[in-house]
Specification:
The chain has 5 helices and 8 strands. By secondary structure, it is α+β, with helices and mostly antiparallel strands. The protein has one domain (about 1-175): Aminopeptidase.
């Protein structure tokens, strides 16, 4: 398996990954999110990776920047979305994409990576709801226990809850 930076040429393959990974009620919005994150320029940049097997894209992950209005020195990202084609699930492709992304972000000096997902799955990588407690997501969550983060490089933040701001592509309440 090869992991590499996704490019605009991968757009249709990335879309297919998410269309076949997610259930009927989610697939369109998640695949649109993945494509928007790949197409739209952000500052700092959004980072997308694809996993290839025999030259075919079988997985995709994106990390987009988040801000804290109360702390300009804060550097954070949110992991969303992650998808692996069904025929390739249970082969640790998602695990490898997550670990690769976290390692890269840590080396870049990023403070925190957030995720909104299954605590059992993401907990294996060090994400926790407890670590995310000081950070308020941009929208009301359908599953509050799914709001998690992992601290990669320590930073001082206020003791009171601080709101994060996401890139425009994630500013859709349906995603939360």
């Amino acid at each position: 398996m090869n992991i590499r930076i996704a490019t605009n040429r991968d757009l249709s393959d990335v879309q297919r990954v998410h269309l076949c990974t997610f259930p009927e009620g989610e697939r369109e919005i998640v695949s649109t999110l993945a494509m928007n994150l790949l197409l739209k320029k952000t500052t700092p940049k959004t980072i997308s990776y694809v996993a290839e097997i025999d030259g075919a894209i079988v997985g995709h992950i994106a990390f987009s920047p988040v801000r804290l209005d109360s702390n300009e020195g804060f550097q954070g990202y949110i992991l969303a979305p992650l998808g692996v084609k069904p025929d390739y699930q249970k082969h640790r492709i998602g695990t490898k994409l997550i670990k690769y992304g976290i390692k890269t972000l840590s080396a870049m000096g990023i403070n925190v990576v957030f995720v909104y997902g299954d605590p059992k799955y993401y907990g294996r990588f060090g994400f926790s709801a407890e670590a995310a407690h000081p950070y308020t997501p941009p929208y009301k969550l359908q599953y509050p226990l799914g709001w998690q983060c992992i601290v990669l490089n320590e930073i001082d933040i206020e003791n009171k809850p601080v709101a994060i701001t996401c890139v425009a592509s994630l500013c859709d309440p349906q995603l939360w």
